[in-house]
Amino acid sequence: MSPKLKKTRVLPGFQLSLGYTIFYLSLLVLIPLSMLFFKTATMGFPDFWEAVSSPRTLAAYRVSFSAAFIAAGINVVFGFLVAWVLARYSFPGKKIIDAFVDFPFALPTAVAGIALTTIYAPNGWVGQYLEKFGIQGAYSFLGIVIALTFIGLPFIVRTVQPVLEDLDPEIEEAAACLGANQLQSFMKVIFPILLPPLLTGFTLAFARAIGEYGSVIFIAGNMPMKTEIAPLLIMTKLEQYDIAGATAIASVMLIFSFALLAGTNFLQWLSSKRIGME
Amino acid sequence: MSIEVKNISKTFGNFKALDNISLKVETGELVALLGPSGSGKTTLLRIIAGLEQAEEGQVLFSGQDAREKKTKDRNVGFVFQHYALFRHMTVFDNIAFGLRVKPRPERPSADQIKKKVFELLKLIQLEWVANRYPWQLSGGQRQRIALARALAVEPRVLLLDEPFGSLDAQVRKELRQWLRKFHDDLHITSLFVTHDQEEALEVADRVVVMNKGKIEQIGTPDQVYHNPANAFVLNFLGNVNLFHLRVEDGKAYVGDTAIEVPGFKAENAKTASLYVRPHQFEISRQPKNKSFLKATVKFINPAGSMVKLDLVTEVGSSVQAEITQEEFGALRISRGDPVFVGLKNITYSEYEI
Fold first, then answer.
1. Which of A120, A131, B71, B278 gets the most CB atoms within 10 Å of its CB?
2. DSSP symbol at B289
3. What are phi and psi of B206, to 5 degrees?
4. How far apart are CA B313 and CA B327, in angstroms?
5. Do the bridges between strand B241-248 and strand B271-276 make them parallel or antiparallel, or are there none, so unpaired?
6. If you average pLDDT over residues B177-183, what whole number do you get?
7. Nearest-CA distance from A278 to chain B in Å?
8. CB neighbourhood size of B166 (10 A)
9. What is the C-alpha separation between A257 and A251, in angstroms, rounded?
């Protein structure tokens, strides 16, 4: 290409910033992750298979993924309600409630775990009433779900809220003029537009919940086969100097999470393509 | 179906948006609500559609009170300034929306819906966009889709809120003429809001001029332009020059020049106001009679069907005049030249300010 035809860009420094981005990502993400697989590769396949498919490991996967999925699902419903209230109505104290939503982001997860345990323990504020109905709050699968729901709330609210605020009220008025009742205008007009941000929020909350450690270990009770999460199992293996075993479990989790994220991203791409937002 | 509003009032906080408005739109009429922004015209339209509630007064459709009826039951077609199309639906689904949300017993079959949608697409000459999304279309196309969507449910009344407000000048003109022709074919009772006087005068059967929540005048385009009810209507419908006249011995003076205005009666006033449209001036190199004013040419804009001149008279007031290209060619004037300004085709009327 002759120098005359060289493209000029309005924003300078593309090559430098791209180089920096790749270097930075390699240092922080790619190299550590590849070490995970290298370390796993040092053990033979039979050992690997035993580590990742023992009943205790399988139970831990099940607990981690199902609790994260349920928690993200709960957040989709109730986080959506919070976002709706914050975007649609104005009332005194709205700013304060808006700030509270970010609390789970800022609070050290261990603090959150201890606080939730105190409240949901059989003698705690909420736990004692749950006890009367025969429901165990803390030290159970429910406890894990509670902790993960707490952690995931801001992801849904913060992804749905801006889209909801941008939504033109005229489209609802247009639907009403065309004879649609309120349910019809919500289901056919508003909800399809909110589906992509809901999926994004779900993905983020789910991904965060799978990896959550700090808050869960306090409230879970950590009984093997019942309330032991996969990250805790990895910690246990590390404490026993079974580093290869720990990385084996970690790599399986990584592959699972990656597949799930790819799946939800694909769904999100499909739904936003229809709206013409990319 | 006719639309009638009776004694409608509406306030937003301390702001009186509508103040005791009464208006009747006859069946099959195309009426323009014309006024500056903040005059309450859009609020009135929204009250008729049921999107806004009036504090006082009634809205009647064919003589029946619509107070108890919600928007969805009023059967009005509403076209929004920013189209308000459903962006996640194709053009086809947008137009079919109103038919698909009908209660099951009234809902047409899929085949009937398809037939109806293509009829409407044919009417707006956009059959080829049925499977596109609104964001793939131009503003003018989107507004026509919005109109087709509103017409799909066969509304008894069509309400248009600044329908051409966010379009290019060229597209605006095209759509304006298209709307007029379209209305002549369908004869659906229509009320449209605009702040563009040219648009209102060109399209509407009757024009309602509004200002500060009140109706200033209702009339045909000819009536409101040539016989404005007051100074506001006169000012709002096109440019106008204001002369402050001094009255002495029954004669009107601008500076020291006595001018003759047909219809002017001195009575006992000391001063009077004279409103002159830009085309009511005669410009010449030499004074044709004693009532011509001396002036200087400040600016000439010859681009257009009329040549626009900015003049400053000897008393220091600025005057905007329009002359034909032929007159301009004969005058051979340029910037800074002295000229004389006279009045033509004018009759004096007194307006309250």
1. A120
2. S
3. -135, 150
4. 20
5. antiparallel
6. 87
7. 12
8. 14
9. 10
Is the CB of B71 less than 8 angstroms away from the CB of A173?
yes
How many CB atoms sit inside 10 A of residue A233's CB? 25
Total residues found in chain B within this entry: 353
Closest C-alpha among A170, A166, A187 to residue A83? A166
**Tokens representing residue B285 in the block:** 């190199």
The percent of residues above 90 in pLDDT, for chain B, comes to: 44
Return the higher-pLDDT residue of B346 and B102: B102
Percentage of residues of chain A with pLDDT beyond 90: 40
Provide, as residue numbers in chain B, all residues whose Cβ is less than 8 Å from the Cβ of A189. Answer: 86
Residues of A in contact with B98 (CB under 8 A): 178-180
**Contact map slice: B 125-184 vs A, CB within 8 A:** 133, 135-136, 146, 149-150, 152-153
Residues 75-114 of B with CB under 8 A from A: 75-78, 80, 82, 84-88, 97-98, 101-102
Q: CB B72 to CB A170 under 8 A?
A: no
**Residues, chain A:** 278
Measured at the CA of B203, the angle between CA B159 and CA B232, to 5 degrees, comes to 90
Q: What does the domain layout of chain A look like in residue ranges?
A: 54-277
Pick the residue from chain A with its C-alpha nearest to B101. A180
Model ipTM? 0.81
Q: How far apart are CA A166 and CA B298, in angstroms?
A: 48
Q: How many helices (H) and strands (E) does chain B have?
A: 10, 19
| One-letter amino acid of B192 | F
* pTM greater than 0.95: no
Identify the residue whose tokens are 């056919």. A188
Lowest mean pLDDT among A84-98, A135-149, A176-190, B264-278: B264-278
Are A178 and B98 a contacting pair, CB within 8 Å? yes
CA distance A191 to chain B (A): 10
Does the beta carbon of A188 lie under 8 angstroms from any beta carbon of chain B? Answer: yes
What the block records as the tokens of A184 is 């019809």
CA B137 to chain A, closest CA, distance in angstroms equals: 12
Separation in Å, CA of A164 to nearest CA in chain B: 14
Instruction: Give the sign of the dihedral formed by CA B79, CA B83, CA B85, CA B90.
Output: positive
Q: What is the CATH architecture assignment of A54-277?
A: Orthogonal Bundle (1.10)
Q: How many CA atoms lie within 13 A of A84 on its CB side?
A: 11
Q: How does A122-155 read in b/e, with b if 16+ C-beta sit within 10 Å?
A: eebeebeebeeeeebbbbbbbbbbbbbbbbbbbb
How far CA B15 is from CA of B11, B18, B139, B194, B213, in Å, comes to 5, 9, 33, 21, 10
Sequence-distant (6+) residues with CB within 8 A of A108 are: A214
